[in-house]
Give the backbone structure.
Amino acid sequence: MKSFYEGTSALITGASSGIGREFALQLAALGSTPVLVARRKDRLEQLADEIRTKYQIEACVIAADLALPHAAAALYSHTQEAGLKPDILINNAGFGFQGAFLKGDARTYHEMTMLNITALTELTYFYLPAMVEQGKGGILNVASMAGFAPIPYFAVYAATKSYVNSLGCALWHEMKQTGVHVSTLCPGPVQTEFFQVSGARPEDLPVRNIQSAREVTEVALYALSKNEMLVPTSATLKVMHKISTIVPLKANMSTAAAFMKNK
Ligand SMILES: NC(=O)c1ccc[n+]([C@@H]2O[C@H](COP(=O)([O-])OP(=O)(O)OC[C@H]3O[C@@H](n4cnc5c(N)ncnc54)[C@H](OP(=O)(O)O)[C@@H]3O)[C@@H](O)[C@H]2O)c1
């Protein structure tokens, strides 16, 4: 796995916390230079210092709100002007909202779709050509088990992650002959700030085992190095994914709703 990452540069969105932060640390440990992107610049700078001290690697910090229109194009231009050419793109930034559809507000749904869908798609579009030209590199899209099937009371978030699953798998197919790896990560509950931000509660989810960001990231980096297409991050999630393809949609949604509607 080390040889896939060593000497590369990796742009990681949502690196200021949780899974993205862990990606930055693990990639640096594997000899990749991280480019850290999120809104909270102070956190990114602290992380860059930590990486410099622990791994003697100069991480680069870019503060950006990826939910804004044209944010991906602006980030791409910024990295081009700075001479940063990522070999690896980790599309990790994302957030959710748990609750009845009409209890959420339109602005939250707008920002969620801009971040979870639009920014992810456009960053992929901008950074992929250089990878294809070089015949190597990788894109890791962080989706979720929430994208396996529609989830009432987590409706917009689940729909955004379903989009990520679909796009990621299609691009895996398109890139098969190019040498560029495309993997889509499907974690279940992970111990991060996600639950504070989304208002979701781990106890409402149908999976009892909460994974650490470290565990999920290790699975992800190994999978990307092997060009695995769709990556549920535990044995339980692999089974749940299989079940979601067999159980009739309405039955699947009734079960999901029973877990989620507590809010
Ligand atoms: N935790 C879970 O249970 C779980 C399960 C499945 C999938 N996921 C997915 O994993 C990914 C990472 O989430 P996490 O669990 O690590 O949650 P987290 O700790 O809340 O981290 C989310 C990251 O996204 C960044 N972000 C949020 N809004 C942004 C914006 N407008 N522009 C740029 N960056 C933004 C945040 O940074 P700033 O606030 O500094 O901008 C933060 O670094 C997400 O895509 C999430 O959907 C999480």
About this structure: Residues 106-134 form the longest helix (29 residues). The first strand starts at residue 9 and ends at 13. The pocket of NAP is lined by residues 13-20, 38-40, 64-67, 92-96, 115, 142, 144, 187, 189-190, 192-194, 197 (CB under 6 Å). The domain at 2-260 is CATH 3.40.50.720 (Rossmann fold).
